[in-house]
Fold this sequence. Notes:
By secondary structure, the chain is an alpha+beta fold. Helices cover 16% and strands 45% of the residues. It has 2 helices and 12 strands. Strands 1, 2, 6, 9, 10 and 11 form a 6-stranded mixed beta sheet that branches. The protein is globular, with a radius of gyration of 17 Å.
Amino acid sequence: MWFQTLSDQKDVRHVNTAQGTNGDYPEVSFTLLGQTVEGLLGVTPDAPARRLSSQSRLPAGMDWLKIDDLRIGSSAFALRHDGARSSTLTHTSGTGRWTWEARFPGRWSSIRVNGLPVPVRTKVVDGTAYTYATPSVAPGGTVTVRVG
């Protein structure tokens, strides 16, 4: 709700009119971007270890969300969540393979990486149970993980 409020108010003139619109403040864009990447996409980077995790936190009514040019260390990625059951990561630039922990809320009976079944693994993170896979993503590569 507050995310929508911030977005709706970004073009409104600030109370102190000499300071321009609310969107002129870097804190507003920083907050919106942070809540998109960390909040809705659930991205947690670990550049030194060449690892990243993600989990969809899309609200009901938001079918998908994608970010392009997600920079982590010297690499860049595109990440798309389709609901809470499918995610796709593309390693768009950089060197070396990265390990992606693709998490999905709940305990699912199956998980597939690029359409192929892999052993189901589960864990609890901050009190929430997740089913997950940890594929390796090479530069230029794309991996899709789906639970069902």
